Amino acid sequence: VPMVAPGNVQVHVINSTLAKVHWDPVPLKTVRGHLQGYKVYYWKVQSLSRRSRRHVEKKILTFRGNKTFGMLPGLEPYSSYKLNVRVVNGKGEGPASPDKVFKTPEGVPSSPSFLKITNPTLDSLTLEWGSPTHPNGVLTSYTLKFQPINNTHELGPLVEIRIPANESSLILKNLNYSTRYKFYFNAQTAVGSGSQITEEAVTIMDE
Hints:
Radius of gyration: 26 Å
Number of domains: 2
Mean pLDDT: 95
Number of strands: 14
Oligomer: single chain
Largest sheet: 4 strands, antiparallel
Strand order of the largest sheet: 4-3-6-7
Low-confidence stretches: none
C-alpha cells in the first residue's frame, strides 16, 4: 500500500452546504504501485445549534487519478466537520493525513415543525407552533402572515407580524367573527427565511 499521506490539506468553505478540499500530491515513488486516486473521508462532528452527540457516520468520496482537489457537496449548515485524505493504489489505501476541522456557516431553517390553531372565540384565535427540526443556525424570529378568505374564496388584505424567536404561542385578537383566515408561518436565521407552513382556521359565529 502507499507509504505516505497527502500533505498540505486545505479546506475552502464555499457556502453552508458545499466545501472544496485541496491537497498536495504524494511523490510518485511513495505510491508503490499504480496511482488510482485520492479518497477524502469526512464526517460531521456536531451541529453548532444543538449540542447533541450522535452516531458519527463517515462519508468517503473518491477522486480518480492525480487530482489534487475535490468538492464536498451536501454538507449540513452550521456544523463542525473533520476530514482527512488518503492516496489509493491497486493494493489499498495509504495512511490518512492529519484530521482537518472546518465549520459550515448558517443556512436558512427548515419549516416550523407544526402550527396548531386552537381556542376560537368571536374575535380571537390562539396559535401554537414548534421550532424547526433543522434550525441550520441561530433562529432570529418567526414571521406570521394571515388574511381573511371570503365565501367566494377571495383573499382579503394580508397582515404580517414579526414574533421573537423564543416564543411558541400567540393570541391573535381583533379578528372578525365567523370568518375563515389563512395563515402562513416561517422561521428566520441571519441568512434569511425558511420555508413556510400554511394553516386555516375560523373564528366562531356567536357565543
